[in-house]
Amino acid sequence: MRLDLKIVFLLVIQNTYVCFSQEVTNINIAKELDKFEPVKCSDFIIDFDYITLKTNDSILIDDNPNISIYNQFVIIRTSKNCFLFDRFSGEFIREIGRYGKGPAEFMSTRGLINPNTKKVYFLGWNSNFLEYNFNGEFIKSIKIPNYKDDFETPSIPTNFTYYNHDLVCYFSNTVGTEKKLLQIFNNDDKEIYTFSNSNIFPKSRLTVITGESHFYHYERNLFFKENYNDTIYRVGKEGLIPEIILYTEKYKKPYESKWWAIAQEQNSEFITPFDIIETDSYVFFKFYFKAKSRFGVYEKEKKQSKITDFEEGISNDIDGFIPFIPMGISDKGELIGKIDAYIIKQWFTDNPTKATTLPIQLQKLKSVKETDNPIIVIANIKK
Q1: pTM, rounded to two decimals
Q2: How far apart are CA 344 and CA 136, in angstroms?
C-alpha cells in the first residue's frame, strides 16, 4: 500500500529551525503483515553471478561477514580481518590493516568503507578511526569528535558511514541524555554538522545496543533510519529530509524499550530491526516480527508492496539453486548475497537429480568443500 503526501516538516538542527516541503512515500507494513504473498527471485531479478572465493588457512571467513563490492573488488570484513578479493575471479588480493594493539593496528573492523575516496576506516583503541587505502597502506589516525566512553556521561557512536568525502557516526542514547543523533566530521578530526537527538529522558542505566540505526546510500545520497522511528530520512546539509515512511503502527518499538527488562521486551510484539536496500525500481526491507524473519519488496512503478516469510530465503526460480538471501547492494546497484560452503555441500547431497539440471557453472560447485569460504552471489535486478 502506498500514498503520496506532501508534508511540511519543522526540524531543529543545531538550534536552527529548518522548514521544507517534501514528497513522502508511505508503505503500510502493519496492514500487510497477515497478507503473506509468495515472493520469488524472478519477480525482481534477471540472473545471478556466483563468485568462488579463494580459500586457505590465512584467509578464512566466518559465519557473519560484512560484504561490500566496489568496482573490481569484493571486500570482506570479519570481526578481526578485512580481505580484498577480485570480483571476477575470486582470487585473494590482500588484507587491509591488522587487528592488534601495535602501531597502525585496529581494535575492530567496525567502521566504514568510502568508495568515493577508496579509503577504509576501522575503530582504534583511543576513540579514533584508523584510515587505510585499498592498497592496504595505513594513512593516519582520526579522532572521533565528542566520543566519550566513561560511565557517568557517555557519548558513544555505534554506527558509521560516509557522506560524500566525510565521515558520519550515529550516537546511541546510552543513558537517555544523549543530545547528539548524527555527527558529520572530516578526516582532520573537525566536526562539520551535528543533528540533535530529540528523545531525551531522565538518566537511566547504561545500555549500549548495536543495530539501533541503519544507513544506506542511493543515487549518491545518504539515508538514515532508527528502529524507533518509521521514517527513512535523507541526510543533507539542510537537515534530515523525510523520504519514505514504513508504517508499523501498533508494532512500532517504543524508544524507551531499550531500557526495559529482557523478559518484558521478549514478550512484546514489535517490528524490528530494519535492513533497507533501495534501487531505481524497488525498496527492499528485512525485519523480524514474532521471532520470525520477514522480507518485503516495494515496487516503485506499481506502488505496491509484498511481505513474505524469509526464514529460508527467497525461492530461486531462476536457476533452480539455493534460495537467495540479499545482504547488501553493490556500487552498480546489484544485490549481494552469500551461500556458505557447507550449505552448498548439503544441497548437492540432498538433490542429486536436480543437480544434473543446473547450469554448468553451478554444477562445478559440487566440488566445494565444507570448510571453503562462502560463495558470493550477485543478483542483476530488473529495471
Answers
A1: 0.91
A2: 32
